[in-house]
Design goal:
- This protein has 298 residues and is of the alpha/beta class.
- The chain has helices at residues 5-8, 25-40, 83-88, 120-130, 147-164, 167-178, 188-198, 206-223, 229-256, 260-271; strands at residues 49-52, 71-75, 90-93, 106-112, 131-142, 276-284, 287-297.
- It has a 7-stranded mixed beta sheet, with helices on both faces.
- Helix 5 packs antiparallel against helix 9 and helix 6 runs antiparallel to helix 9 (229-256).
- This is Ubiquinone/menaquinone biosynthesis C-methylase UbiE.
- Pfam families: Methyltransf_25.
- GO terms for molecular function: 2-methoxy-6-polyprenyl-1,4-benzoquinol methyltransferase activity.
Length: 298
């Protein structure tokens, strides 16, 4: 059985789906332009690259076809790069503040929405250690006032409201008796109506809409003997766990996003390691999107 909520609560397994990046396609255009200008166009064919917090290799996918240098992507989470990328590059599970590479291993370190999750002082130290004396560094970081962070804050509010409403526990309890107490099935509509009154969210909430659609379909399937109550309880438990994981991810994303002052401190810290810096406040239609930072030394 497929339910609308499954696609809404997939972030805990996001990279396992093979997704390339966390931005919507239209928002990624300024990002791709920055990467093309400050990374792809400057990259020499045989230069080595470390992609920090690679996700599923969105940056590595932009490499020219004739690039022949050693490339490795590292990430602290489980990732699922495409088969094509796995054949061309190396991937390792690794903490960005404790990189298992010798000194001066790379010509480039690149990172898209990943470096800000690393301990700042240790992360800078490790980047500088594994880079050659003549090297380049490209960082794309979340921005606190960006469209993405505002959207994340909205999703956080919606997720917390849903958890606080008791919707999951009420639906779970209804399923507990559905297999044995046939008379209780008549209360399905009453249950959904009462739950709706307790959730105070905007009517255009996509998460709430998907959840209510999914619950209505699932409980109706139980009512019509297409799904057993016990099986439905497991599905509801999975949805709740996924929502909790999604909330945790969003909380981290909002917390690590850089303010203007944070970004200036980061740039200055890297400059102190002998790098020259070029920073770009990336925007989409005049609205803040991300911090783009390019560094070179030697």
């Amino acid at each position: 059985m497929r339910y609308p909520l499954n696609s809404q609560l997939s972030w805990s397994d996001y990279w396992q789906t093979g997704a390339a990046q966390s931005l919507q396609a239209h928002s990624a255009n300024p990002i791709k332009q920055f990467v093309q200008t400050y990374f792809v166009s400057k990259l020499q064919r045989q230069e080595s690259i470390l992609d920090l917090a690679t996700g599923n290799g969105a940056l590595l996918q932009q490499l020219p076809d004739d690039h022949s240098g050693f490339c490795v992507g590292v990430d602290y989470s489980e990732i699922a790069p495409s088969a094509a990328l796995r054949q061309q590059h190396h991937f390792s599970r690794m903490d960005g503040s404790n990189l298992a590479f010798p000194d001066e291993s790379f010509d480039w370190v690149i990172s898209q929405f990943g470096f800000e999750y690393v301990s700042r002082e240790e992360g800078i130290k490790e980047l500088c250690r594994v880079l050659h004396a003549q090297s380049q560094l490209l960082l794309l970081c979340h921005r606190k006032d960006s469209l993405l962070c505002r959207h994340s804050q909205q999703q956080l509010m919606e997720g917390r409201c849903i958890l606080d409403s008791g919707l999951f526990s009420s639906a779970w309890q209804w399923c507990q008796y559905a297999d044995t107490d046939k008379s209780d099935r008549a209360g399905l509509q009453k249950l959904m109506t009462s739950l709706m009154k307790e959730i105070r969210l905007p009517k255009d909430s996509s998460l709430l809409f998907a959840l209510l659609q999914s619950l209505a379909k699932l409980l109706t399937d139980v009512q019509n003997d297409r799904v057993r109550g016990e099986s439905a309880q497991k599905i509801i438990g999975q949805w709740q766990s996924s929502l909790l994981a999604n909330i945790d991810r969003l909380e981290q994303q909002v917390e690590v996003a850089l303010s203007g002052a944070d970004q200036k401190r980061l740039v200055e810290s890297i400059r102190q390691e002998g790098f020259k810096a070029k920073t770009v406040a990336l925007a989409e239609q005049g609205r803040p999107l991300a911090w783009g930072m390019y560094f070179s030394r030697g």
